[in-house]
Write a structure and sequence with these properties.
This protein is 74% helix and 0% strand. The longest helix has 28 residues.
Length: 323
C-alpha cells in the first residue's frame, strides 16, 4: 500500500486538505499524520491494559529516535481488527519511516520533534487516565494530541515559505489555537463513542456547574443539564476556531494550496460545530456533516479561499445554517 492510499485509509476527510499541499509539503505532512496515527493506535487500543499502552508509546518514541526496532510496534497490530484504520497504518509503520528518512533532514527533524513530543504527551495522559478537573486539564491534553500538530505544520510551512518564516513567531500562538479548536470539535462529536470506551473529555468543572455526573450526561432524564454542558463545550470550541480563522487569514493568498490545506479542516470543523450546538443527538451518536456538505465546502473554498473577506462571510454562513 503506497503512502497516499494509507492516508486515505486513515482519513479521507484529512486527506482532502493534505493532498492540496504543494510538493514536498504534501509528502511531509502525510508522513507526519501517519506517524501520529500509529501513536493514536497505541493510545486508543481498547484491548491493551494501561501499563502496556504506556510501555508501547514509550517504545514507539524509541523507534522514532532510532533506538528500537520498529518490528516491536508492527507486531502489536499484526492480528488487529483491520476495520480499524489506525491498525492498518501501524502495520505499515516500517514503510512510513522509510518515507520519513527520504525527506530533507530539516523536515525530518521538525516531524520527529513534534511526533515524539506528542507521543510522550499521550503516554502521560494515558497514565493519568480520564481525569480532567478543569479546562486547563482539557487544554493540556488537547495540546499534546493536536496543539503540537499546529506547531508542526507551521514549522513545515515556514520551511517552505520565506514569508511564513518571517511571521512564524507571530502566528505560533494561533497555530496552537487551531489545534485546540479542531480537537474540541472532535471531542464534542465523539462524546458518546468516548464514553462507551470509558473516557469522558469533559472537565469535571463543567459538569459540576450544571449539577450532573459524567454518567448522567448521557441519561435522557438529565438531557437539559447535559445540553448546558454541551453549551460550555461548544462555546469553548467557537473561541478556538475564531482564532484558527485568524491563523488561516495570516497565510498569504498566493500560497493557495497551503491555505486550502488549512481551510478545509477549519470549515469542516465550523460546520460540524454548527450541527452539534444544542443538539441532543450528540449524546446518542457521533455528530457528522454530510458528504454533500463536505463536497460543497471543498468546492466553495477552492474557488474563493484566497479571499480573507470571503472566509469571514463563509464561516459565518456555515455557523448559521442548521442541520
Amino acid at each position: 500500500m503506497n503512502l497516499r492510499d494509507l492516508l486515505r485509509t486513515a482519513s479521507r476527510t484529512f486527506a482532502i486538505g493534505i493532498e492540496r499541499l504543494p510538493g514536498t509539503l504534501c509528502e511531509a505532512t502525510t508522513v507526519a499524520y501517519l506517524l501520529l496515527r500509529v501513536s493514536d493506535y497505541l493510545e486508543d487500543n481498547e484491548e491493551m491494559p494501561v501499563d502496556e499502552k504506556v510501555l508501547l508509546l514509550n517504545r514507539w518514541v524509541n523507534v522514532l529516535r532510532g533506538e528500537a526496532d520498529v518490528r516491536e510496534i508492527v507486531t502489536q497490530a499484526v492480528h488487529a481488527d483491520v476495520s480499524n484504520p489506525d491498525a492498518i497504518v501501524t502495520q505499515h509503520a516500517h514503510e512510513i519511516l522509510q518515507h520519513l528518512h527520504s525527506l530533507p533532514p530539516e523536515i525530518q527533524a521538525i516531524i520527529l520533534q513534534h511526533v515524539i513530543n506528542s507521543t510522550l504527551g499521550m503516554a502521560r495522559w494515558t497514565k493519568i487516565g480520564p481525569n480532567l478537573n478543569d479546562e486547563a486539564d482539557l487544554d493540556d491534553y488537547m495540546f499534546e494530541v493536536a496543539g503540537r500538530v499546529g506547531y508542526l505544520m507551521t514549522q513545515l510551512f515556514a520551511w517552505y515559505s520565506l514569508f511564513i518564516r518571517r511571521k512564524q513567531n507571530e502566528i505560533m500562538p494561533l497555530a496552537r489555537e487551531f489545534g485546540l479548536g479542531l480537537q474540541t470539535v472532535n471531542v464534542i462529536r465523539g462524546m458518546r463513542e468516548d464514553f462507551n470506551r470509558g473516557w469522558v473529555y469533559v472537565p469535571k468543572k463543567f459538569l459540576s456547574a450544571t449539577g450532573i455526573s459524567s454518567e448522567q450526561m448521557f441519561q435522557p432524564e438529565h438531557r437539559q443539564e447535559a445540553l448546558k454542558v454541551l453549551d460550555l463545550m461548544t462555546d469553548k470550541a467557537e473561541r478556538h476556531l475564531r482564532e484558527a480563522l485568524k491563523y488561516v487569514k495570516s497565510l498569504p493568498w498566493w500560497l493557495h494550496g497551503i491555505r486550502l490545506g488549512c481551510i478545509y479542516p477549519l470549515m469542516f470543523a465550523i460546520r460540524t460545530l454548527a450541527v452539534s450546538r444544542r443538539n441532543a443527538e450528540v449524546f446518542e451518536s457521533e455528530a457528522k456533516i454530510t458528504r454533500d456538505e463536505v463536497k460543497k465546502i471543498v468546492f466553495d473554498s477552492t474557488m474563493w479561499g484566497w479571499s480573507n473577506l470571503w472566509l469571514d462571510k463563509y464561516s459565518n454562513e456555515l455557523r448559521a445554517v442548521k442541520k
